[in-house]
Each structure stands twice: as structure tokens, then as C-alpha cells.
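INFO  loader      accepted 1 record
INFO  loader      residues=417
INFO  predictor   begin
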Amino acid sequence: MVPFSRLRFSLRDAYYGWFVVAACNGIAFVTWGVGVFNQGVFLGVFVRDYGWSPATLSVGPVLFHLCAGMAGVWVGRIVDRQGPRIVLLAGAVLIGLGMIGFGLVRAPWHTYPVFVVLGCGFTCIHTITLGKIITRWFVRHRTRAMAAATFGAGLGGALLVPLNAAVIEAWGMLAGGFVLAAVTLAVIVPLALWVIKDGPEAVGQEPDGGLVADDPQTVDLDTDSHPWTVPEAMRTVAFWGLSICFALGMAAQGGYLVHQVMFLQMSLGLIGAASVVTVTTLMGMVGRVGFMLVGSRFSPRVWVALMFAIQAASFLLLAIGSSATELLIGSALFGLTMGVIVVLQPLATASVFGQQAFGRIYGPIYMSIRIGSGAGPLLAGILVAATGGYQAVWFLLAAALFAGGIGIFWAMSASRR
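INFO  predictor   done
INFO  writer      dumping C-alpha cells
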């Protein structure tokens, strides 16, 4: 019989990086659950109860993405110099103010400054900061850790959206804003102050708990031997390949997420469209779990090309499909890849430029990504108005994804050479 002393699990001997991953899940729970998915709840109430034009309100999400992108340049520099803690705390405060601001809105234009504040807060707790945290703690298991660190995003949408809707229906918009603000502060502030540490050396450990030199999964650390600057990075093919091609990918992703219900309800009705959205969200969680389990088997450039190709195929199916089954499969394939593509953005950047300069290099790339996210829904709406339907939109987004996947694979291959 094995002695009980040999079976005991000692928290003192565990690698602290996995506790950091758990904390990042809590942050992702707020990042997406409060900062992204609940935007539609507030906007839906403005349209339903106040009769405001969706076209007028759509300016807000565009401002959100533009401001998030511009703030990302500064957030990346701050997180490199001062660590993630101060950035996370600032993000929690800004997100909370944005949520309360929704409850105080009395005219359509009032939503614009709210989205500006929300966008700045979102950047502080999104992939720039989370990516920096994970790249500091993990090398050999970086892919698995990054996927695991964002699993809470799907749970945030699944739990906080119905919570906010129920509070608004019972007590009004301001109550909903205060509840989400309270959730944000209650989750992020303790994690930032007492759990998140600025790298393994802060607790006397090494990345991954100690690298194994001959491990085939160990990431090449040559990029960390050079202190990259932004001008130097901008002279590389990889920087522009990541910036432009990920922007194309997020333009496609943002375009579908905003227009999904409007597109599907033409064939499935509102309830049927909402059900497909739920399936899309659940498939996003499935994709993250699958990537967490097998992501380390291939390099980020291979995964980017594969995920972009699968998502492009989903748009082709949506463009040519007409039955409920075809639309469901197309949306499910889209959902399977959407979370993985977000995870791959910081992973691909770190694999090229390393973790020491991650924040300052990923900041400008992130700005390009956010511009694509904001431009996609706007351009999709313009094209729908011009063509009278979504078929041309989905074909165009599929082409953008195919081009983006090939472009990133080529650019990252060139950087390795």
C-alpha cells in the first residue's frame, strides 16, 4: 500500500503559473461577459423601450473598437514597464464606470462617451494584458495555458447576459449597470491584488516550473535575446502580416457576430436565431477546450492557417445554404473557431517577437485588430444595403479569411527564415 504521505498534494510544491491561469479565467469571465456580450443587451433595450434607431446606436460599437485599439498601444507599453496589476485595476474601474454609464443614458448620443470609456477599459483586461501574463509564466506549455486562460469567456456570456437581462426587466437599466459594475470589481480587484504576479521569479520559480532543454515542445527563445523596439518590429514582414491578416480575420468575425441574428431570423425566426447563437457560443467553448488539449502539437502559424480556413468554409456554407440544418452547421463551425482565433493572436505575436517586448509590439498589432473588428460590421451593413442580402457579404468574408490565413502563414514562415 502506498503511504498516505506520498499521495498528499502540496500547494506549496505546485507551479504557481496554473493558479495565475485560473485567475486569468476569472478576468476573461468579466472581459467578455461584461465588456462584450452585454453590449447587445443594453442596445436592445434602447431600441425596444426608447425607439432609438439601430443605425444611430451602431456608432457606439465602432467607437468602442477604435478607442480600444488606440488605447492598446499605451496599454502594451505600460504592462511591459510596470506589470499587469495596475492595468487590470484601471480596466476594472473603467468597465464599471461604463456599465453604470449605460444606466444613465437619456439620448442616443449619450452612448458614445460610454462606449469610449468601455473600450479603454476593455483593452486593459483583454488579450494584451492576459497575453503578457501568460507569456511571462509559460514557454513549453504556453499554447495550453493561453487556451485555458480564456475559457471563462464563454461562461461569462452564458451567465452574465441572462443575469443582466433579468435585473433590467425587474429594476431597470441603472440597476443592471450597477450589478455588472459590482461583479467586475468583485472579480478583478482581488485577483489583481492577491493572485496575479509579474512573472515566476516573483515567487522564486522558473517558467513552466523549470524548462526541459530537450523537450520537443519547448519554444525557441531566440527572439527574447534581442530587445525588440516598435520601429524594428515594423521593419519585419511578420509585424505587417500579423497586423493586416488578423484585422481581416476579425473583420469577418465581428461582421458575423453583429449581423448573425438579423441574418438568421429571416429563415429561422427570432427564437430560432437566438437558439443558433447559443449553439455558436457553446461551440466557442468546445473549440477552446480542444485547442487547450492539442494546441501544442503544431506551431501557431499552422493553427492560424487551419482556423482561418475552417471559418472561411463556414461562411461559404452560410452563403450557399438555405435549410435550417445548413445554417446551424455553418454557425457551429464559425463558433468552433472564433475563440481559438482570438487566443492565437497573442500566441502568434509571442512566437515571433518573444515575451520581453510582447506588450509594446502587440499593442500596435492589437490596434489593427480592433480596427478590423469595428470595420467588419459597418462594411457588412453597407454591402447588405447595396445588394439586398447577405450572400455577397459571406462570400467576401470567406475570401478575406482565406487570404488572411495564407498571409499569416507566409509572414511567420518568412520570419523563421
